[in-house]
Amino acid sequence: MADSAVHGSKARPRDRKVAQWTRDYVRLPGIPDEFITPDGAPREVWSRFFDYFASLSPPEITRRFGAADRHLREAGVSYRAPGETSERAWPLSHVPLLIDEVEWQQIAAGIVQRVTLLEEVLTDLYGDGRLIADGAVPAAAIAGSAEYLRAVCGIKPPGGRYLNLYAADIGRGPDGRWWVLGDRTQAPSGMGYALENRLVLSRAFADLYKSMNAERVAPFFEAFRDHLRASADRDEPRIGVLTPGRFSETYFEHATLARYLGYLLVEGDDLAVSGDRVHIRTVAGLKRLDVLLRRVDSNSLDPLELDASSQLGVPGLIDVLRKGGVVVANMPGSGVIESRALLGFLPNLARRLLGEDLKMPHIATWWCGQKSAREEVLDRLDDFAIEGAYGAAVPGFPGPGPVLAADLSASERDRLRNAISNRGIDYVGQELVSLSTTPVWDDGKLAPRPFVLRVFAAATADGWTVMPGGFCRIAERLDSRAVSMGQGARAADVWVVSEKAVTASTLLPTVDTVRIKRITGWVPSRAADNLFWLGRYLERAEGTLRLVRALSVPQRDPGKGPQHQSLERIQRLLVTWGATALGARANPSKIAAEALQNEEEFGSALSLVRAAQRNAASLRERLSPDAWQVITQMAERLAQPVEDDDGVVSTAELTLQELASFAGLAQENMNRAAGWRFLKMGRRIERAINSTRFARQFAYDEATGEDLDILLTLVDCQITYRSRYLVGALLPPVRDLVVLDPYNPRSVAFQAQELNDHIASLPTLRAGGLIERPQRLAVALQSTLITAEAATLDAKSLFALEQQLLELADAIGQRYFPHGASAMRPEKLMGLA
């Protein structure tokens, strides 16, 4: 593709590099390309980009690509493909999509016009209904969509808009213009991923990013945030991002947006309707929520008036909307605009409602609910892509659309033809369009790949503003007609390149607009629940790891560590804790390996760390990248094969060090608000339970010195004991140190004191000065430990302490955490024996 001068003897080294990269880069026949113009020359904006790229050595390019990938991995950027339960690593293309400023202004103008039109259409469909009454839109084209919600008809949107956020999938058409491939009005996704893409590439290639004068995206997010704040009816509104939960395909994005915009991440169970308002359940009781940026489909928002089977929504939400008590962005029912059945009517609607033609055309579409359009499609069936009129699936055919009649067998073609003839309202025919291509880096050279660009527009006080950039999805196959993240696509950042320097911007407000805060508000009950159990799971894992290490040391170094009788006690405890299914008399090496890594056993170290990881995944907006990275590293380490006793001990010790790192991060970096307290309470109560169980097992009345040494090792108190007592391990002082000593940070008494302090700092709901049940139990537990004597401790009293701790844990859950059938997850019901 490069001109002959590049290959001449006077060509610059940079030019020769670019020529080598692009030697096999060929525009596809009849398909536009972002890098190469129709006359075969590279576009100026790409020439600037690759001129810089060619100044880097191959090792430097590899290093920077590696830095980008490492950031994605360490930050836990991920997505979930449809139908999958596990997350996938985010597939970022290392080369951004480049668009020059002049062309972008044309795109932005088309997007603003289109969303203005769609807002007018929604206002009429849910208001006066003149478009249907006058025949501008057939009633069946609207009523056939499951997204047209009769319950919303007549409701004036709180905040004044049906659409607060809009996205359009666009591609460059054969004529070189940009075309709209589809509208996204339900709950447009991709904005958070676009932000992550920008953060990654702008860090990996900071100097290139600056020199290319790429437009910043922070002003877009700031304007959108200001709009949502202003749409509420009070000065300091509480705003939440409503997510279906961590099993959503794009849950990471929901957490990213919540963290970046400073919003609460909430699920349906976190919310409750009281009076004419929506409230969030917090540890301090119900707190009013003013605005919901929803990521839940409309039909699932209210089981009382919409889908009765939904467990994702808030009962009574639609009635609150009628009363103007909450702003929901976007309004329920706005997804009706995504119906392909409407596309063919938009050009006339633009002339009717706006008095102008569409600035950006969309794919030519024929809705088969009209006789003339249906006959057109049936006459030229092979020339069309057949899509569902109201959803991704084509009725009668498996999988997402489109269906290409030319690729079907004779019987399938007949079936499709009959389906369109019998019920045409369910189908549309769309002109076959091949996506334009953009360069990707593939094994040290550039190759063209089809792409779709999602562009975002947000409502603001000054009208609609368009994000300068967007979310680009690139297909792996050259013949792709549709791009989906579940079908092997990769994502790319989008740089809108200016000729002049771009002012650096940030989402931080000016100094004089900020009211100083030290507490950001009470933690939602679900978040407190997850933080509490995150602490418990990590502490359980630590207890299992300490047992595994104690069991493995004598296998690795015969003659060191506990002997036969004490080993049996360790093995029995691992069996009792559900860390292994092997019997207590099985081979110690096998028990240790299974207790370390058998994910099928709920008490194994791997299972417990994975459980902690699941809880942490629900807290991504609250955990730092470093904390998430430590948990991920622990899970990855425990999942790696271990071949011998040395490997078991090494893995256990390294994971224990990582647990200590996480504890240090929580202690030193986490704000001392209620969320931190619940994380600490989870660890404290589980550590107390573990220490009590260790004491019952190894500090029994006839305990040997070896048993007591094991106990001191398990609770990490060997050095403390040796510094206090110049004799071997004796029962009374060991019991006192492990159970009753309030100065020992590993003792049961110390945990009880900490628990009492944390609970006393939490809000109370009971008036009249009476303390609530969790604090009453904590005070009683601490009193028991303060007044107890080591000489009187025995198996019975230790068991009673354990029961007090379990009762306290239950009381904390009943008081502060969500209730109901969906509140208790299965893994939380599997208590330790």
TrEMBL record:
Gene3D superfamilies: 3.40.50.11290. It comes from the Bacteria. Residues 524-817 form the DUF403 domain. It holds the Pfam family CP_ATPgrasp_2. Residues 96-475 form the Circularly permuted ATP-grasp type domain. InterPro entries: ATP-dep_Glu-Cys_Ligase-2 (IPR051680), CP_ATPgrasp_2 (IPR025841), DUF403 (IPR007296). This is Putative circularly permuted ATP-grasp superfamily protein/putative alpha-E superfamily protein. It comes from Rhodopseudomonas rhenobacensis.
